[in-house]
Amino acid sequence: MTGRRAGASVPQRARAALGAGAVAAVNRASRRLGRGSGTVVGGRVGLALAPHLLAELGRSRRVALVTGTNGKTTTTRLLSAAVATEGGVATNDTGANMPAGHLAALVAAPETATAVLEVDEVYLGAVAEAVWPRVVVLLNLSRDQLDRTSEVRALAERWRASLGQLAAGAPAPHVVANADDPLVVWAARGAVGPCTWVGAGQVWRLDAVGCPACGGRVRFGPGTAWACDSCSLARPACAAWLEDGCLARPDGTRLPVRLAIPGRFNQANAVMAAVAAPLLSAVPPDGGGTERAVTVEEALARMAGVDDVAGRFAVLHRRGDGVRLALAKNPAGWTALFDLLEEERAVPEGPPDGACHLVLSVNAQVADGADTSWLWDVPFERLAGLPTVVATGERHRDLAVRLRYAGVDHVTLSDPLEAVDAALARRGTGCGGDAPARAEAPTGPGGAVVTVVANYTAFRSLRSRW
Known about the structure:
Layout: H1 10-32, H2 41-49, H3 53-58, E1 62-67, H4 72-83, E2 90-91, H5 99-108, E3 114-118, H6 124-131, E4 135-138, H7 146-149, H8 152-163, E5 174-178, H9 182-188, E6 195-199, E7 218-220, E8 226-228, E9 240-243, E10 246-248, E11 254-256, H10 264-281, H11 296-303, E12 315-318, E13 321-327, H12 331-345, E14 357-361, E15 388-392, H13 396-405, E16 411-412, H14 416-426, E17 450-454, H15 456-465
Parallel strand pairs: 1-3, 1-4, 2-3, 4-5, 5-6, 6-9, 13-17, 14-15, 14-17, 15-16
Antiparallel strand pairs: 7-8, 9-10, 10-11, 12-13
């Protein structure tokens, strides 16, 4: 990476201005013609006209990059809320997480000093080299779209190499990393700059049993402890961690993490964002002047108002009943959602129907990964005994086979809306089999009478058809 330039040449600035104008114009045209949301196509045009445009727009801001297999979009949304100012934040929290999406986000908010960008795991190095981030948030690594992203340890190696090269010619980023994921810890330890460790938990451990440092075996002990049995790689001491719904610190401080979106995994995302927020907001974008950093307490308070993350956990209504939509893209994500459903069924006042009546929708398009063998890694056995499980989506037959071997009674319907209607028709059985049907439409996620769990394009398609 070369050092910071004293100033761009006039032709280069002209190309940048042309590229930025093209991004905005093409995105507006895309939305007007109904061809898309206008978050990617303009970025592609801009990069074609001005290949260095992402660097031109990114290096004038303080930037946080958020990456990981799961939780990127939610953490990006939460961190954006935590550091928002009157001028707003440039962000791509709709999930367009490759360079074209980053460019479109920066062009859409030209006056902001702060950018919070979700980054696809594969693109972390390239985007970081372009924009010189002040903060990099590393959430987790697990198997996902292996036909596209390669083996998980290879990604960890790419992260480690990228983070070790970012200090040449620019301030080294401050890394905020999940201490409970051995692959993330190993990658983050390659960073030249400072690193803050956060205990965010790790639902899926099967991809982390082999030590990335020496090839030995990682042993997970009681509680959160883990260590390699052949080398020094082990869980580092944390500056903060999630404990009983609170952000905990070594000095004994406990700050409640109260969110409008459900699940422990979202509380973990919030803790990561809360730790990153002061680090990002404390650094002026031009390297001069002084600004007051957002405190962790302020960050948590601001995140409490986030009630929608690109439609995740939204409750839509169909024929007077509430249907909750949830996104799960890989074994770790499905496992975390099953944890949430079990938590909801265990509440003393009685489980919401939405935790008991499920529609599962799976596609295998490019954005999902064409290989559906990952279905056999998902613990669908945990759904056995539920009164309603409906398999749907383009790969409903693959899903139905997996459910059959898991011992889950289910219905198979190819059309997702027909599947939702079928689940709504069966919802009167309740979790115990004899609960009465609800007389009123639900008003929140916990009161939905049906939950739909879908992978990426299945989720997007169902929302567009609602």
